[in-house]
Structures are given as structure tokens and as C-alpha cells.
Specification:
Layout (H helix, E strand, L loop, with lengths): L11 H4 L17 H4 L57 E10 L5 E2 L4 E5 L36 E5 L5 E7 L10 E13 L2 E14 L2 H7 L32 E4 L9 E9 L39
Parallel strand pairs: 1-9
Antiparallel strand pairs: 1-2, 1-5, 3-4, 3-6, 6-7, 8-9
Length: about 325
């Protein structure tokens, strides 16, 4: 399976009919926990969980480490909608994501107008546009979730950075699929503009992935609906893409909305240090691996060409 699946029969204007809605997950459910984390290494989250990019001081040409660009993976679809809430009714633990885009080559000045694009799987490991792709382990079919989400657009979207370089998304904590750890894909675009509900033109400065500390993921995956997906979960140390670099490699800082009740959700944040003059489409890098089996299904919300994806997941 590749990530350059395209079909021009669904226009962006039709895709604009999609509306979002956040659905919180239910209470703790132990079923499936043991098998989901069987045969894995120690899941202790170390200081990387709250690491921040390194500073070199105001006198240097760089104020922080550039983010590490990696593969975009096989599930990228061009033409995501510009919107804050990307859930479309998908069930899961709420996640508010706050990302700050700065120019790492110019004193960490905010990159106003940068378009940040994210996409990720649902609680059972399925991506919109690829809803029959097997996430590995044992999970119900995506169609069994019974939500109102559009199968071509859920859990994908753009936001344009404000004067402080900040974007915010409302989404859900992602699930997982074999052989990957829990993650969110991200691209930073500059030089384009909003058009017909999406973002057009410009170039991609950064392609990366956002990651979650193992202990938090372990707790989330005991909840419904995540607990219905069982199998061997990949921890950070065994992931083919995450390189152990902490925040500069995409590890989010996470804060629980309610410490005693993880189902209430999390707030995730990270500063993305990019070079606005660079270009990285995400066509390579980040290690190899075989994506989950399955045939792409559904029509992407785009009528333009999608960049080629690497075989990494």
C-alpha cells in the first residue's frame, strides 16, 4: 500500500460539508491490556517525556535544535481541510494539541502564517481513506465503531499559525497499529494560502511525527474504545522511526486534564524548530518497515496530486 492514493471524484467543496464533534471516551477497562502490551520492553518513560529543544543563547544564529525530519508514511492524503476540530465524532480520549512553529535559524522567531497539517489513526488504528487496512493484532472492523465520521477526512486537518507561531487542534489520543508506536504525523508548510477550504501552494519545510511517552500510552490503551484492539504494542525504544531524541525528535509534553481520570483527556504541546527556507516533502528517511496490509478505500478530499510516500509507516 502506498500513500499516494488519489481519486478526483470528490471535490474540496463537497468535503467542506464535513463537520467536527468531540466524543470523550468511557471509563477504565482492563480487558485487552495484557495482550496489547505483551512481549514489550520496559515502558518506563524517562526525562525525554518533558525534554525541550536545546538553546544556544540569543547571540547565536540558532536558538534551538532543528526538528528531525522523517518519513510522511503511507497514509498521507493531499487536500486536508483547514479546521481546529478534526475528530468528526470519532470516539477516544480527548487531546488538545498546541504546536508552536519557530524559525530555528533566526533566533526562534515565530513563523506567522505557517500552515501546520496533522493526521493520525483512530482508537483502533485505522486511518481515514484506508479504513480496511489491517492495524495488526485483533481489532473490530472500522465500520463497527458506528460513528458519524467521514471515512475520507476524519482525524486530518490544517491550522494556520497566529502571530506567535501557535496552532491548536482538538482531536483524540491516537491508537496504534503494527509495527508502530503511538504517533501523529505532521507537516509544516509556508508560502501558500487558504483556498477552497484547504491550503494550497508554498512548500513543505518540515515533515515529522509526534510521539507519546510509553507510560501514558499504556494507561490510555486500557480505556474504551482502545481496549478492544489487542496485540503486541511497540514501545518507543523499539519504534522504527522515533530515534530517542526527545522533543527535537517529536516527543510531546503531555499534561492530564484530570490527574485521577485519564479519560478526561490530555493537553499536548511542542515547539517545532524549522528552517523556513528548507524543503522536506517526507518522501524518505525514518527507517523501513512494512505497513499494515489492506487496500486503500474511500476517496481522498482532494483533486490535486499527492506527494509520493515512502514504504515506511
Amino acid at each position: 500500500m502506498t500513500g499516494n492514493h488519489k481519486d478526483k471524484t470528490l471535490s474540496r467543496r463537497r468535503a467542506l460539508a464535513v463537520t467536527g464533534g468531540t466524543v470523550a471516551a468511557g471509563g477504565l477497562v482492563a480487558a485487552g491490556f495484557q495482550s496489547a502490551f505483551a512481549d514489550t520492553a520496559d515502558t518506563t518513560a524517562d526525562a525525554d517525556a518533558t525534554a525541550s529543544a536545546s538553546a544556544t543563547g540569543s547571540t547565536g544564529s540558532e536558538c534551538m535544535t532543528l526538528m528531525t525530519s522523517v518519513t510522511e508514511g503511507p497514509y498521507y492524503l493531499d487536500g486536508a481541510l483547514v479546521r481546529k476540530d478534526i475528530t468528526e465524532g470519532k470516539a477516544g480520549v480527548p487531546l488538545t494539541l498546541r504546536l508552536t512553529v519557530v524559525d530555528a535559524t533566526d533566533g526562534c522567531t515565530p513563523v506567522k502564517g505557517a500552515a501546520v497539517e496533522i493526521w493520525h489513526c483512530d482508537a483502533w488504528g485505522y486511518y481515514s481513506g484506508y479504513t480496511t487496512a489491517n492495524p495488526g493484532g485483533s481489532a473490530p472492523a472500522e465500520s463497527e465503531e458506528g460513528d458519524s465520521a467521514n471515512d475520507q477526512t476524519y482525524l486530518r486537518g490544517y491550522q494556520v499559525a497566529n502571530a506567535n507561531g501557535v496552532v491548536k487542534f482538538e482531536t483524540i489520543f491516537p491508537g496504534w497499529y503494527t509495527p508502530r508506536t503511538c504517533h501523529i504525523h505532521v507537516k509544516v508548510h509556508t508560502g501558500g494560502e487558504k483556498e477552497d477550504g484547504t491550503y494550497e501552494g508554498g512548500k513543505v519545510n518540515y515533515t515529522g511525527q509526534l510521539f507519546f511517552a510509553d507510560d501514558i500510552a499504556e494507561e490510555i490503551f486500557t480505556l474504551e474504545p482502545y481496549a478492544k484492539h489487542t496485540g503486541s504494542y511497540t514501545v518507543l525504544a523499539d519504534d522504527m522511526v522515533y530515534d530517542g531524541g526527545g522533543a527535537s525528535s517529536g516527543l510531546l509534553t503531555l499534561k492530564a486534564v484530570h490527574k485521577k481520570d485519564p479519560s478526561k483527556g490530555y493537553k499536548g504541546s511542542l515547539t517545532l524548530g524549522v528552517d523556513p527556507d528548507a524543503e522536506n516533502t517526507g518522501a524518505g528517511g525514518g527507517g523501513g518497515g512494512t505497513p499494515p496490509s489492506g487496500t486503500p478505500t474511500g476517496t481522498p478530499p482532494s483533486d490535486s496530486t499527492s506527494p509520493s510516500a515512502s514504504p515506511s509507516s
